[in-house]
Specification:
By secondary structure, this protein is mainly alpha-helical. The protein is built from 7 helices and 7 strands, in the order E-E-E-E-H-H-H-H-H-E-E-E-H-H. A hairpin with a 2-residue loop joins strand 6 and strand 7.
């Protein structure tokens, strides 16, 4: 919080958490992380999901989450390894989806849509039983963006619960990547 003339300026580190709350320890790194992703990604995707044409926008909002999953699990930045981290994140969140569909998602959704604002070989649908929610059918990637959102958010909820319980399978990676995000250097070399 700072004062500039007659204006009182409150500095937020996430939509609902002030820098003062965070730095004083009233709110933790987990609180900040959860508020950032829940508010910036999931709540925004849910807000637009009511529109029947929002499938591409849902995917645009949610797709970066899959790369970040790997950053938090590994405890390091995806710099120079973005596609590899994205692939691993998709495999983590969607373990039953075959590799060909995940590879096509990376090519068509992450790279194609991000660079061209259009899909080429992708059929978006909402709960059509004849089509896979996330899979290949006759050489075309089929995606139900609303299902993708549900699955990604469910994984996020599970991950947050594990971090809050200090589950050994996730806490070191979370702690290390938060340090990376805050600008600290993490030494991964062995003495």
């Amino acid at each position: 919080m700072s004062q500039e003339g007659d204006l009182l300026i409150i500095d937020y580190v996430s939509p609902h958490i002030t820098r003062e709350q965070w730095q004083s320890g009233k709110k933790s790194n987990v609180d900040v992380f959860e508020d950032q992703l829940r508010s910036f990604l999931f709540k925004q995707a849910r807000a637009i999901a009511r529109n029947r044409n929002s499938g591409p926008a849902i995917l645009a909002l949610i797709s970066p989450y899959f790369e970040s999953v790997t950053c938090y699990l590994k405890g390091k930045s995806s710099r120079n390894h973005a596609t590899e981290f994205l692939c691993q994140g998709l495999r983590t969140v969607f373990p039953s989806v075959d590799a060909a569909a995940r590879k096509k998602y990376i090519k068509e959704v992450r790279h194609g849509f991000a660079h061209e604002a259009m899909f080429r070989d992708v059929r978006l649908h909402r709960s059509v039983k004849a089509f896979p929610s996330f899979g290949m059918l006759n050489g075309v990637l089929h995606i139900d963006p609303w299902w993708i959102l549900d699955q990604a958010e469910a994984y996020f909820d599970s991950y947050i619960a594990k971090v809050r319980s200090r589950d050994k399978s996730v806490i070191a990676g979370f702690t290390n990547f938060m340090l990376v995000r805050m600008g600290a250097e993490i030494s991964t070399s062995k003495p």
